[in-house]
Amino acid sequence: MRSTMQDVxxxxxxxxxxxxxxxGSGEVLTCTEEGARSxxxxxxxxxAAQLAGALRGLGVQGDDRVATFMWNNxxxxxxxLAVPSMGAVLHTLNIRLFPDQVIYIAxxxxxxxxxxxxxxxxxxxxxxxxxxxxxxxxxxxxGDTSLITGGRAQVHSWQELIAGQPxxxxxxxxxxxxxxxxxxxxxxxxxxxxxxxxxRSIYLHSMQICMREGFGLSSADRALAVVPMFxxxxxxxxxxxxxxxxxLHLPDRFLAPEPLARFISEERPTFAAAVPTVWTGxxxxxxxxxxxxxxxxxxxxxxxxxPPALMQAFEQRHGVRITHAWGMTETSPLGSxxxxxxxxxxxxxxxxxxxxxxLPAGVTGRLVGPDGTRLPHDGTSVGELEVRGPWVTASYYRxxxxxxxxxxxxxxxxxxxxxxxxxxxxxxxxxxxIKSGGEWISSVELxxxxxxxxxxxxxxxxxxxxxxxxxxxxxxxxxREGATVSAEELRAFLAGLVAGWQVPERWAFIAEVPxxxxxxxxxxxxxxxxxxxxxxVTRLS
Length: 541
Ligand code: ADP
Hints:
This protein has 541 residues and is of the alpha/beta class. Among the domains are: 176 residues, Rossmann fold (3-Layer(aba) Sandwich), CATH 3.40.50; 71 residues, Roll (Luciferase, domain 3), CATH 2.30.38; 106 residues, 2-Layer Sandwich (GMP Synthetase, Chain A, domain 3), CATH 3.30.300. It is built from 15 helices and 28 strands. The strands form five sheets. Strands 2-1-11-10-12-13-14-15 form an eight-stranded mixed sheet, with helices on both faces. The longest helix is centred in the first third of the chain and has 17 residues. The chain is globular, with a radius of gyration of 23 Å. The site of adenosine-5'-diphosphate has 24 residues, from strand 14, strand 21 and strand 22. Adenosine-5'-diphosphate binds next to strand 14, strand 21 and strand 22.
């Protein structure tokens, strides 16, 4: 029997219509040099309609790709609203990638228009001659357009282009399975790959974000998206915020710890999200210069493993509760969120909170061994996590990578265990696991312990070739300002926490752990530095 229910497509336009009317008084704050500028969702909706009109005028039709090369700001949000709702595809370009990668990605996606912040024009101008499909560049705010000397694109001012356009449009009726937006993976372990989100996947994912098993976002929230809008769609925050009328706080280019702390203490967001390295930097700043963080009911940390020591430090010293979450560009990105079951004491909650969290109903997970067999979800068996669900990608855009897909499941490349009640613990990315004499060492576990040492600001552990064991861990350590610690002391510290054979012999003290374009530890660079001999390594016997 077919259902009797109406078949109404789940679309971004539905979220936009609702958010800009029912929640029209919701606020978007963008950080500027002179404090925050503010707009309501109703105003943003009107400007989004004008942007859509302007883009139509430039010839955007069908599923043309409209790229953004922007910070997190109000105009970027307007593009988030306008482009999918007019039936085109929003493509958020990562402003921090090497030019070669941006060029590859923009050409691969066949971007037709690029919306760019004036402050980023110098970067884009250098690449533009190589962008073979871009017809138009639309510049937001002041920017030196004389920098654009080559290429085929016409250059326009955003404000001039939208002036006089109607402030309301009939958004296009879409097939909910059509692409609404696309993002490329940041390439932490390989080349960038394109994921095209559908209207339906964005809608369902936004609902998940607002559930308690997600981020529990509601109209009572003011959500600070530190995570870039080009990193897996700012983890879904913009659409989810609009769906429920949570206000959005956008830091633009003011991402250093000091302005971020000021933005938080002045504008008092209730919720924030970013990768661990952002919070590590903010913690050091707050420890030196305390400021009021108490408006934050919850901070979601994901993108790489969150060191438990970071969670404890924020909670104990600054009254901020960190919630750990796991996800991938390929999963929209929300996978698991470490909300503990209700009714537990702080001590009982802790093992749940430091795990990667609970997979929601929309994301089914399974563990698979190296030979492809299923492993039990008993909390101890360790294998590769495979996932499936309506907001998990089934392929990459114009890129056959059959290795990443297995009988309709996405192979995450992440290794770990699942409990019978659905909590995920990851030990490593499969490419980062250290294989020492036939045994596996979790680089993440060693890092988490090291970052729990009071003298350690950051630590990253990578496997390096070893004649006897095949591979052994190399620990690279950034010492906290004003502290001192030796390799021998850290070795003794670790020896009390992990099995003796897992303790690294090789140690390097470095000024900073190299980071990827989205702020993750860049282990590729560390391995390369070690191979080239550019790290000063102490070898303990
Ligand atoms: P890239 O693969 O280029 O880094 P993504 O941001 O999509 O781009 O990365 C997804 C990957 O990040 C996951 O497969 C996982 O390895 C890692 N990751 C994300 N969140 C966590 C987490 N909470 N703990 C451990 N690893 C995480």
